[in-house]
Amino acid sequence: MDKERFPDNYAVKKQKADLSGADLSGADLSGADLRGANLTNADLSGANLSGANLSNASLTRADLSNVSLTRADLSGANLFRANLRRANLYYADLTEANLTEANLNNTDLTDADLTDADLTKANLTYAKGLDQH
After folding, report:
1. Sorting pLDDT into bands at 50, 70 and 90, what band is 3?
2. What SS3 string covers the chain?
3. I need a surface site. Which of 20, 107, 123, 125 has the fewest CB within 10 A?
4. Per-residue pLDDT tens for 24-33?
5. What is the per-residue pLDDT across 102-126, written as a single tens digit (0 to 9) for each?
6. Which residue, among 25, 27, 14, 33, has the nearest Cα to 83 in the 3D structure?
7. 47 vs 15, 68, 115, CA distance in Å?
């Protein structure tokens, strides 16, 4: 999929969609329903995913750098080796998410729910909001 752009407030419903390798950099996907979607190796850098539902999605090795995930649902998502550098995860639900070896350098995790999330070998250098957990 080439750079696909979605108009502001476009109701994106891609449940269980295969978007692996897609270039969605800078896209406005706020409020999108991407439950169970395959976003493995996708480029979402700079995208707006505020309020998006990414529960049980596969984001393995996805580029989520500089992404807004404020109040996003990432419960049960697989973020193995995902790049979340400088992402905003304010109030995000990461319950039971797999963040093994993820890059969370300079990420804002203020008030994010990390209950039962796996952060094994994750890079948490300069991550904000961890003192609340």
Report:
1. very low
2. CCCCCCCCCCCCECCCCECCCCECCCCECCCCECCCCECCCCECCCCECCCCECCCCECCCCECCCCECCCCECCCCECCCCECCCCECCCCECCCCECCCCECCCCECCCCECCCCECCCCECCCCECHHHC
3. 125
4. 999 999 999 9
5. 999 999 999 999 999 999 999 999 9
6. 25
7. 18, 7, 25
The domains of the chain, with CATH numbers, are: 13-133 (2.160.20.80)
Of 48, 82, 81, 53, nearest in space to 67 by CA: 48
- Given CA atoms 102, 28, 71, 126 in this order, what sign does their dihedral have? positive
Whether 84 and 107 have beta carbons less than 8 Å apart is answered as yes
Residue 65: Cβ within 10 Å count = 21
Torsional sign, CA 122, 33, 70, 117 = negative
The candidate with the shortest Cα–Cα distance to 68, out of 47, 54, 84, is: 47
